[in-house]
Amino acid sequence: MEIFKIIEPTAAKVPVIISVPHAGTFIPEDIISKMNPEVSKQLDDTDWFIDKLYAFATELGITIIVTNYSRWVVDLNRNPENQPLYNDGRVITDVVAITDFNGNKIYNDDYVPNQEEVSRRVELYHKPYQEKLAELLNETKNEFGKALLFDAHSIRKSVQGIRSEDFPDLILGDNDETSAHPELIKTAVDSLQNNSYEFSHNYPFKGGYITRNFGKPNENIHALQLEMCKTNYMDSSETVYDEGNAERIQKVLKKTLVNLIETINKI
């Protein structure tokens, strides 16, 4: 199984890369055999169908990179040294998670991957994705003089392990306005709000490892993360892709990406 797949643009290339680090579902047998089958059958923290939702972006000239492996093998949006992203009391999952977002154990019995196993997975799965993403961004910067990374995510409407209230529909993260040029941030905010979807900026998510690591606007590499509720494009059970819901949110996403392309070409 390839660690990731690259989906090339079908129109003239633009300086935007979409990263989809949490839509993968493959788990190698040596790992899944140690997991609690009741939990591993669900893969509940997966960003289901996000790659399908954003498939239209290739028609805008955008390159997409999508992982094939489950985030429970290794989490590509976590610091490989396990430095926490937040310190506000929420459930914090590691680069190799041992619980889901609600604190349920992923593995059987008292098995916990040791440091050797964590390092093995980081080397095998985490590092190649980050290296490929860096390569794509550097190639784009060399071609256009700049690059924008758009990190695409989704989450259940309610995850009590993170916060007691439901999440806003759309949450833009830019590491407290440090991971992208101010004009790109303004464009994203203006495009995402006032669309009948509840919008929030940098709360309760301000971007994970990918956004924080790659967003270097002073080097002309910018990064934004968009977290969205699965109810935006799935049914109320958050298990089935809903074409009607998806088409509605895709209009907002397309407008946002078109506006971001226009902005990055100007800055």
Polypeptide structure, described:
Helix 5 (182-192) links the parallel strand 5 (170-173) and strand 6 (199-201). The model has no long low-confidence stretch (mean pLDDT 96). Helix content is 31%, strand content 13%. The relative contact order is 0.17. The protein has a seven-stranded mixed β-sheet. By secondary structure, it is an alpha/beta fold. It has helices at 29-32, 37-40, 50-53, 115-144, 182-192, 209-214, 243-266; strands at 4-7, 16-20, 63-67, 147-152, 170-173, 199-201, 221-228. The N and C termini lie far apart (39 Å). It has a single domain (4-266), classed as Zn-dependent exopeptidases (Aminopeptidase, 3-Layer(aba) Sandwich), CATH 3.40.630. InterPro entries: N-FG_amidohydro.
How do you describe this structure in short?
Pfam families: FGase (PF05013). The chain is of the alpha/beta class.
Largest sheet: 7 strands, mixed
Name of the CATH homologous superfamily? Zn-dependent exopeptidases
Broad shape: globular
Assigned CATH architecture: 3-Layer(aba) Sandwich
SSE blueprint:
Blueprint: E1 4-7, E2 16-20, H1 29-32, H2 37-40, H3 50-53, E3 63-67, H4 115-144, E4 147-152, E5 170-173, H5 182-192, E6 199-201, H6 209-214, E7 221-228, H7 243-266
Parallel strand pairs: 2-3, 2-4, 4-7, 5-6
Antiparallel strand pairs: 1-3, 5-7
